Amino acid sequence: MNARPTSPSSCQNPQDDALPFEEARDRILAAVRPLEAAERLPLRTALGRVLAHDVVSAIDVPPYTNSAMDGYALRAADLPSHTTQNISLRLAGQSLAGVGYRAEIAPGECVRITTGALLPPGADTVVIQEDVTVSEGRVTIGSGHRAGQNIRLAGEDLARGAVALPRGHRLNPADLGLLASLGCPEIDALRRPRVAFLSTGDELRGLGRPLGEGEIHDSNRYTLFGALTRLGVDVHDLGVVPDRPDALREAFSTAAATHDVVISTGGVSVGDADHTREVLATLGTIGFWRIAIRPGRPLAFGHIGDTLFFGLPGNPVAVMVTFYQLVQPALVRLSGATPNPRRQLRARALEPMRKRRGRTEFLRGQIETGGDGEIGVHLTGAQGSGVLRSMSLADCFVILDNDRGPVDTGEWVMVEPFCDFV
Ligand SMILES: Nc1nc2c(c(=O)[nH]1)N[C@H]1C(S)=C(S)[C@@H](COP(=O)(O)OP(=O)(O)OC[C@H]3O[C@@H](n4cnc5c(N)ncnc54)[C@H](O)[C@@H]3O)O[C@H]1N2
Ligand code: MOO
Fold first, then answer.
1. What residues form the membrane-spanning segments (predicted)?
2. According to the CATH classification, is domain 345-420 in 3.30.565.10?
3. Are 280 and 311 within 8 A, CB to CB?
4. Among 66, 338, 61, residue whose Cα is nearest residue 184
5. What is the mean pLDDT of residues 370-396?
6. What is the mean pLDDT of residues 372-392?
7. Which of 16, 252, 257, 270 has the fewest Cβ atoms within 10 Å of its own Cβ atom?
8. Across the chain, how many H-helices and E-strands are there?
9. Residues with CB under 6 A from ligand 1
């Protein structure tokens, strides 16, 4: 019996060895061993770096009990006990930020205090200055105050000996401030993954040169540069390599010798000039090379020695989708960082969406929030895997899973907002 002919573009081909998306992602993650080497860095150069150890606070934060407002510090026991009664306290002195009032406040006394100033001994409550009248060295306070109000207790943000930030945390601007508040001038960070990337393709031209017939500008090295730089890895652009097996072999093996990860784009499909897979197979091992996703179906994942190799497809949006969905999680794991869960939200499709069953599709969309707070999503234009403009306009992926068919307006879909990872 003759074999049934299959369409080359079909993803439902029964002989198709394309891996389901989740399996591909899990297999890649399982192949990654996090880096362990650490280096000591001054605090200001540590932005975006991953902590090699827990940071334990050597002090209380705040370091002393202080006032949260400008006003008068007093004993709660002196506050009026009845709702209608006023009290009058003797103004004994002042406590300013940096110059505290050291004496004990006696019953019937209060002290002028500014925000952040040390709370004098004996005081446990602050009444804001707008709520008092001051005359001839006495302060009159009405009702409606609460014992302990407007006080920041020593150690209430962070007690001495507590873990301020855990190993694996990637430092953001707030963390730099937190570490500064603990008095840490430097931290131990994990070594950054060294990542090389290159383009393959004889049609590619650099920027600033006019295009000849059949030539295009190389955009993949720019999207990858941006995405890798944002991720905080150590980035090395190895340029464009010609579509020749010997040139690719030389480029891949040199890159693998000095990098933790090598990413190529182009040449992974079945065309006559697509040599990435065969070259990878001669230099190392291929884990798999076809995934049931769109865009990004041909993707050669493997190893050259200990180096992870990602042969991404050439189409510019396929590069971005496979990078964010498969490469980036692997790089986060390699860098020793605790991954942030990616939030997926349910949104109403604001237009029909084409979808073929049997593969996971990543469409480019924009989130809209209606007056009732309901989230909707529309597409940002043509969804071809070469159309970068619709990627550039997008603020989310619309993720249509394997078993889903075409989507009608008004149906629920899942969206992944870019703010979590792009
Ligand atoms: N007969 C088949 N043809 C194709 C299949 C298939 O299964 N059977 N798969 C298609 C899919 S899906 C994709 S994705 C592409 C992937 O092909 P390659 O990885 O071999 O990529 P190229 O052919 O080298 O390039 C594809 C496309 O992208 C442009 N490109 C490449 N590099 C860059 C770059 N650095 N900057 C901008 N644009 C780039 C290139 O000019 C092509 O237009 O294969 C399909 N074909
Ligand atoms: O799946 Mo390919 O990535 O359509 O372009």
1. none
2. no
3. yes
4. 61
5. 96
6. 96
7. 270
8. 8, 26
9. 8, 199, 201, 203-204, 216, 218-220, 265-271, 274, 295, 297-298, 313-316, 318, 385-386
Q: What pLDDT does residue 11 have?
A: 40
Per-residue pLDDT averaged across 289-300, rounded?
94
Encoding tokens for residue 273?
Answer: 């000039």
Q: Which of 35, 13, 32 is nearest to 302 (CA)?
A: 32
* Domain extent listing, the chain: 21-36+191-334, 38-61+156-190, 66-152, 345-420
Q: Hey, which of 385, 387, 390 would you mutate to test ligand 2's pocket, going by the most ligand atoms within 8 Å of its Cβ?
A: 385
Q: Which residues contact 190 (CB under 8 A, 6 or more apart)?
A: 34, 35, 36, 37, 38, 49, 50, 51, 52, 335, 336
CATH superfamily of 21-36+191-334: MoaB/Mog-like domain (3.40.980.10)
Q: Are 92 and 106 in contact (CB under 8 A)?
A: yes
In the predicted model, what is the mean pLDDT of the chain?
93
Which class is domain 38-61+156-190? Answer: alpha beta
